[in-house]
Amino acid sequence: MAKKRRTGDKPVDDVKDAKGTVAGAASAVTASAIANSYNDQIRPLLDAVDRLRHLKVTQEGIQLPTIVVVGDQSSGKSSVLESLAGISLPRGQGICTRVPLVMRLQDDPSAGSPKLQLEYSNGRVVDTSEDTVADAINAATAEIVGSGKGISDAPITLVVKKRGVPDLTLVDLPGITRVPVQGQPEDIYDQIAKIIKDYIVPKESIILNVLSATVDFPTCESIRMSQQVDRTGERTLAVVTKVDKAPEGLLEKVTMDDVRIGLGYVCVRNRIGDETYDMARVEEERLFKNHPLLSKIDKSMVGIPVLAQRLTKIQAAIIAKCLPDIVKQINDRLVRSSAELDQMPPDLNNVADAVKLFFHIVKRVCNSLEKILVRGEYGEYPDDRFFHGTARIAEMLNRYAKKLPTQCPRRKDELFLMEEMQVLEETKGINLPNFLPRSAFHVMLKNKMATVDQVPQDLVKEVWEYVEDLVLKILLQHSENFPQVQSSCRRAIQSLMEKARARSAQHVKELIEMELVADYTVNPDYMQTWAAIMGGQKNFMEAVRNSSQPAKITLQVIGSVDVSHLREHADSTEQAFDLMARLAAYWKSIVLRLVDGLALHILRGINQLVENDLEVELAEELLANNMAGVERMLTPPPSTGTKRDRLKKSIGLLQQSKEVVANIMDRISAAGEV
Asked: GED domain location, by residue (predicted)?
């Protein structure tokens, strides 16, 4: 049975009411502390950056000051953001933040209720609420990086418009971990380190380094990373969490500053369990006021309200510091955009102007091709191997030469000299037995050529496809301001390449036919090779005739062969050996002619294309039909107008940005803040 309450005991409802009153008071205190950080000195700076963000000046490549939250895994980074924003973020074991979470806090005094919005995946926008924001972030994360434990550098942006929050932009990054757990990639540390460095390297970034009081600060990986990019600590503020778990020695750790935290320390107590954020602030104030050790820490270094105020002022200070460089970047981009607008193609007034410009473009194209395809110069494209023309064509020729067999081709399953014997049998005539029939040599030669006649065809196809692609890319590059004539230029190139392919195909056909017309060479290597092979004929025939000798014998040039199957054909083997030796020796001359002759043909064709054919073909295409092609150059394409509009818009944006920054610089100067 429950005991009756004593008269002096407070009713339960009264206790709840008291807690509610305390929570309400805490909320008012927190809001007041944050609101006080927005005084007349800070607000203009933040308004200027907000204006620049609204103008989307970052699209012009100009970095704006951002607070980047880093820390070792489970250091309490997300909890700090929760305390600042008053909303719940994803929690769990291991890495909770698996993608950069860009949190934009915007104070909205008129807001009846908080407005939260997620932006990710190239512009996708999802409205959410305080109750569902954690689930929404988890869903967006899973959509970006999957439901496993991997990470990604694709950010999610959370916009929080709420009464009483500080106007801050913070980026929460994945916690640093060195040992991958099950389901994580082996290089998880390297992936996280790269993401963190990408964010903290810009000098416009403020590094909010979250440290757990339970560890030695110098051993923290986040400290090591921040020191690599901010050696003096001038951009680094440290937040110490979990102070109630390790209060001993904390005062010395935050006052001695062994790790060079230039912007100082703030010790905080985050929400625990089911506490509301307002109750968490009450408990935080009580902890730092009453704890025997933590109460000794200066009050300017403790509490979430102090952190909000410090962040706001630090952000304002770095904005003021970065403003001169932002002004310079805006001016530089303004000059570049104006110069690019000035370099837009001129408005052509007549056909004569168009013809003059057309031949100027053709000359530039031919000059580029001469460097790339003839002289082997690639200074215009040092990092793109595709445009290193002579090197790519040389590679094709080398591959072609390797595809042609260095020795006379022979089927793998073919017994040695059996093909020669069959051909000799079918070409024999009424003549002296020790004469080698010339027709036998020609039949063998034709058979061998049939095995390789497709190889040179493949080479010329590969070369001219590459040359066509290269010429088109360079031509389209030099004529990018006149897309209205590019289709005509493309037709001209395709026609020119068809002619080149046809010439090369005919040349290959003639090369093959010439090899089949006659067996002729003055190459001394033929006789040397033939003599070397014939030098082993005596031993070879002895092995054939004497079954007691080993069945395998090694011949110069040919290699190891088996003669056991020839012992039944000893009478015809000697003549077959002679035929094989002549063809094997002659094959080297054939390959040499196929390689050298085709290579020289290709090089001549490329030279002819660059020096004459390209200009003639383009002129015929664009100057025909009363110069109908070049007349199209007189009508600017829609893309040119679009580019002009884009440049004008960029210039307008940069001019507005320049004005915004100039105004704030004037105000700062007048106030004596710089």
From this structure: 576-669
CATH T-level topology, domain 32-86+179-333: Rossmann fold (3.40.50)
CATH topology of domain 351-634: Four Helix Bundle (Hemerythrin (Met), subunit A) (1.20.120)
pLDDT digits (tens, 9 = 90+) for 592-626: 999 999 999 999 999 999 999 999 999 888 887 66
Q: Using the Cα atoms of residue 143, residue 147, residue 150 and residue 151 in order, give the sign of their dihedral.
A: positive
Please report, to the nearest 10 degrees, the dihedral formed by the alpha carbons of residues 643, 645, 649, 654 taken in order. Answer: 50
Query: What are the strands of the beta sheet with 205-212, ordered from one edge?
Result: 124-128, 115-120, 156-162, 101-107, 168-172, 66-71, 205-212, 236-241, 265-267
The SS3 call for residue 562 is strand
SS3 553: strand
CA distances to 49, 56, 57, 321, 571 from 318, in Å? 11, 20, 18, 5, 100
Nearest to 267 by CA among 248, 242, 286, 291: 242
State the DSSP H helix or E strand holding residue 116, giving kind and residue range, or none if neither.
Answer: strand 115-120
d(CA 144, CA 140): 6
Strand partners for 554: 560
pLDDT of residue 392: 95
Please classify residue 402 by burial: count the beta carbons closer than 10 Å to its beta carbon, then call 0-12 exposed, 13-18 middle and 19+ buried.
Answer: exposed
CA count, 13 A, side-chain hemisphere, 649: 11
CA 83 to the chain's CA centroid: 37
- For position 398, what pLDDT does the model report? 95
- Kindly report, residue by residue over 211-231, the tens digit of the pLDDT: 999 999 998 999 999 999 998
The residue to which tokens 């580029």 are assigned: 368
Residue type, 227: Q
Do 32-86+179-333 and 351-634 have matching folds?
Answer: no
Q: Which residues of 143-181 are buried (b: 16+ CB within 10 A; e: fewer)?
A: ebbeeebebbbebbbbbbbbbbbbbbbbbbbbbbbeeee
Helix (H, G, I), strand (E, B) or coil at 388: coil
Eight-class DSSP state of 461 = H
Q: Which one is predicted more confidently, 56 or 499? A: 499
Report how far residue 524's alpha carbon sits from residue 32's, in angstroms, rounded to the nearest whole number: 101
Domain ranges, ordered by start, for the chain:
32-86+179-333, 351-634
Which residue carries 């090197």 as its tokens?
391
